[in-house]
Backbone:
């Protein structure tokens, strides 16, 4: 069966052009970039090329980029660096809808003596700027909020959040894992101190990412050991992955206009048709200010996992914020922070498109989903069929 | 991705006995929209033989919830109420081949709905929402799970860990605040099952040396007090011990919490008194 992959906010297909560029660094040029011999040592230039490609996607200077093992490492590195570089500051700020890679680090710090403020969102998932202004003070070491939300696609006003943080002397970090490659991500424009991104969300290989560290910002490494990455991140460089990530970033930048045009129009078509055909359905997130590839919808009175399993039968891959899909027993923390009513939170489905998504695939979803919803509602005790 | 058996998938995709029995003699309900799964059973009972002649279900929930309900209706149909009331959640899971650990609560829900439907029949057919008969203490506030429900799941399924209890009853699966209470229930059950466990000889606190006293206090802070404070984003450290005066410092969320004095007196102080010596007094540094 042909797979219709609409779960690109979870991970993406490694683009075939990217894979081709990676293979020689497994088979032929497998040397260690730290070696003295030319065979290994010349891989240094390869890494620097990739650094330039990634820097360009973020409008950064290449020396402001370090390679990491992914978004999670970037997030931990930035937050721990900030609090360890400013040991007298004992306050951190984040938002209620962050990825666990940020939220759990903040909670860890809170259990070790830090004051933590978690800024809420409104029903559209928009950042509560008033609450943020109230809690920000001179004791704040770092403010960390995502650029765009993985579940709803809602985009945060990171430029404004950064400006306020700086006005009180705090550092600003943004998790741009979902934003990078889908919308323009100019780190100079928003004036961030740290920005973490991940390769596998933009058709690069898994297990690799990058952290932007603004020139001049105090920094302490997270991974200690060897002298790699200019002493900012120890560990032998994952050359094939870094090469792949570099090309993925270059391609992502080149394809950016496609997201705002073709991908967005496919997403909008899916949204319009499903809303028109299926009653008791709502869209979650800020539809005015949202990633062009993401659609989060709630189908009332039924449960997300059941929907996903019937979609799976048709080869359609999506994800759900329902409790049952994760085993956590509670629906998505993002939807709960938005105050989405329970009868809708449990029945939420996220479709996330990519530049490989076709009109035909979207039409298939539009064709099969109304039947699946009707079938499940017929079993539900809450809905008269 | 869950590892569902073919039987689960079959009952999910082709559910048996869906709907509502007309002029039902009994209606049992369990769960709610808020919990994320809910089941409604209606039964038709032969008044003379007490055989369940017809049974239908409606379920809001995941694949395993739908499959558990479906297979339960097949199991109960044709049985007498007496026989049907003996169906356990383990029987439901076995009938499906197996269920993933984290989904066992779906089978428990089936057992409870059937219990409620039978009760409804006995009471003249008025719908019954499943609940505990005695006023059992609510342990998990998030999912409204009582001590009795946890004990039943522990006994029927031979559970050993808090994680097991969460998988089977959902208790502790949301905010996690009741995990300590669940552990205490398990400790009690396990202690009963292991009656030969030797009680460690305990010397009175007052007879300990100063280093032993400090270690005993730190041990209680680490095992009993910090885990609870950590849940609210706080922590605690021992600053000094002078006679019976224990000086501590609250950290993190606790330091700025307006209820910190209450925490100190009612929780920290009381725990130390209960576990070590009733003469201990706690002071904030």
Residues:
């Amino acid at each position: 069966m042909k797979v219709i992959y609409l779960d690109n906010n979870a991970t993406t297909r490694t683009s075939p052009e990217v894979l081709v560029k990676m293979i020689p660094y497994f088979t032929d040029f497998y040397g260690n970039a730290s070696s003295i011999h030319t065979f290994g040592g010349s891989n240094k230039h390869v890494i620097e090329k990739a650094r330039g490609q990634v820097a360009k996607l973020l409008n950064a200077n290449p020396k402001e980029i370090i390679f990491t093992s992914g978004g999670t490492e970037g997030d931990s590195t930035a937050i721990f660096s900030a609090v360890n570089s400013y040991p007298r500051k004992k306050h951190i700020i984040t938002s209620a809808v962050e990825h666990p890679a940020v939220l759990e680090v903040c909670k860890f710090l809170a259990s070790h003596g830090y004051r933590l403020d978690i800024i809420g969102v409104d029903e559209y998932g928009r950042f509560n700027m008033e609450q943020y202004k109230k809690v920000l003070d001179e004791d704040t070491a770092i403010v960390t909020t995502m650029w765009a939300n993985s579940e709803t696609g809602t985009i945060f006003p990171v430029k404004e959040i950064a400006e306020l943080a700086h006005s009180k002397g705090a550092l600003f970090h943004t998790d741009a894992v979902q934003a990078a490659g889908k919308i323009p991500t100019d780190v100079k424009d928003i004036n961030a101190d740290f920005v973490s991104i991940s390769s596998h969300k933009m058709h690069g290989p898994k297990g690799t990412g990058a952290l932007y560290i603004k020139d001049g910002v105090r920094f302490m490494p997270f991974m200690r050991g060897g002298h790699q990455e200019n002493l900012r991140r120890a560990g032998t460089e994952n050359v094939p992955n870094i090469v792949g990530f570099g090309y993925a970033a270059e391609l992502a930048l080149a394809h950016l206009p496609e997201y705002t045009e073709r991908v967005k129009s496919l997403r909008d078509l899916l949204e319009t048709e499903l809303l028109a055909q299926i009653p008791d359905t709502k869209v979650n997130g800020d539809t005015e200010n949202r990633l062009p590839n993401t659609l989060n919808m709630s189908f009332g009175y039924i449960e997300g996992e059941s929907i996903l399993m019937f979609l799976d039968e048709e080869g359609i891959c999506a994800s759900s914020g329902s409790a049952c899909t994760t085993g956590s027993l509670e629906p998505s923390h993002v939807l709960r922070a938005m105050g989405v009513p329970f009868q809708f939170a449990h029945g939420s489905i996220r479709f996330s498109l990519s530049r490989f998504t076709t009109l035909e695939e979207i039409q298939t979803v539009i064709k099969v989903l109304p039947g699946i919803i009707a079938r499940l509602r017929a079993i539900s005790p809450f809905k008269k069929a | 991705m869950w590892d569902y058996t073919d039987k689960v998938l079959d009952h999910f995709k082709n559910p048996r006995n869906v709907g509502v029995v007309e002029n039902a003699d009994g209606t049992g309900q369990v769960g709610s929209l808020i919990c994320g799964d809910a089941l409604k059973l209606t039964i038709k009972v032969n008044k003379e033989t007490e055989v369940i002649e017809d049974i239908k279900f409606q379920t809001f929930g995941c694949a395993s919830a739908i499959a558990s309900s479906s297979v339960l209706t097949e199991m109960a149909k044709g049985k007498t109420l007496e026989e049907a009331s003996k169906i356990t959640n383990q029987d439901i899971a076995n009938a499906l081949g197996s269920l993933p650990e984290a989904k066992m609560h779906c089978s428990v829900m089936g057992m409870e709905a059937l219990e409620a439907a039978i009760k409804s029949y006995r009471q003249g057919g008025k719908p019954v929402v499943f609940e505990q008969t005695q006023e059992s203490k609510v342990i998990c506030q998030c999912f409204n799970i009582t001590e009795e429900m946890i004990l039943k799941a522990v006994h029927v399924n031979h559970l050993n860990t808090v994680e097991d209890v969460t998988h089977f009853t959902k208790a502790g699966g949301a905010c996690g605040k009741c995990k300590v209470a669940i552990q205490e229930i398990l400790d009690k059950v396990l202690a009963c099952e292991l009656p030969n466990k030797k009680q460690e000889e305990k010397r009175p606190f007052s007879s300990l040396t100063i280093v032993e006293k400090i270690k005993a206090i730190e041990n209680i802070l680490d095992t009993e007090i910090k885990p609870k404070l950590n849940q609210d984003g706080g922590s605690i450290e021992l600053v000094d011990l002078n006679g019976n005066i224990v000086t501590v410092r609250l950290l993190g969320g606790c330091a700025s919490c307006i209820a910190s004095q209450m925490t100190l007196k009612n929780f920290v102080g009381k725990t130390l008194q209960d576990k070590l010596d009733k003469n201990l007094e706690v002071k904030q540094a």
Residues 138-193 of chain B form a domain with the Arc Repressor Mutant, subunit A fold (CATH 1.10.10.1100).
